[in-house]
Amino acid sequence: MPLYEHVFLARQDVTAQQVEELTEQFKGVITQNGGEVGKTEYWGVKGLAFRIAKNRKAHYTLLNISAPPAAVAELERLQKINEDIIRVLTIRVDEHETEPSVVMQRRDRDERPRREFDGGGNTGRRDDAPAEAASEGEDA
């Protein structure tokens, strides 16, 4: 059976509990049509890059699906008529990832170097930048 990664966005004014209920409803649609849902991740409320139907934020949820194409088409059809769902994306993949998705991993964000604000004369460069390079740029 083909494997899919499916992400749907629910409106920001819907509660997290309602999003969980929607997720269970969508899992039921997949299983009724001969498929199965593997990993499910609720990514939380995140900001959108642009407004969609007057929404600036949305609840993001990921489903790893193993189902026939007809089951995925039925899932997308039901999500398009649901007024709480504002966007859907389904991608066919060769295999599902067993680890948490990149969105759920926090270690990459924790390993970034910290910038320090010096109070007023912040030049936008890190403290480990050589001072000579900064002074040469000012003379030119």
Q: What do you see in this structure?
A:
The protein has a four-stranded antiparallel sheet, with helices on one face. The chain is of the alpha+beta class and 140 residues long. The model has no long low-confidence stretch (mean pLDDT 82). Strand 2 (36-52) and strand 3 (55-66) form a beta hairpin. It has a domain at 3-93: Alpha-Beta Plaits (2-Layer Sandwich), CATH 3.30.70.60. The protein has helices at 16-32, 69-81, 107-110, 131-139, and strands spanning 3-11, 36-52, 55-66, 85-93.
Estimate the strand proportion.
25-35%
CATH class of the domain at 3-93: Alpha Beta
Major beta sheet summary: 4 strands, antiparallel
Name the CATH homologous superfamily of the domain at 3-93.
Ribosomal protein S6/Translation elongation factor EF1B
In total, the number of strands is 4
Question: What oligomeric state do these chains adopt?
Answer: single chain
- Which blocks of ≥5 consecutive residues have pLDDT under 50? none
Major sheet: arrangement of strands: 2-3-1-4
Number of helical stretches of at least 4 residues = 4
In the CATH hierarchy, the architecture of the domain at 3-93 is: 2-Layer Sandwich
Can you tell me the overall shape? globular
Helix content: 25-40%
- Determine the mean pLDDT: 82
Series of H and E elements: EHEEHEHH
The Cα radius of gyration reads: 22 Å
Q: Give the termini separation.
A: 64 Å
* CATH topology name of the domain at 3-93: Alpha-Beta Plaits
Helix/strand/pairing class, anyone? alpha+beta
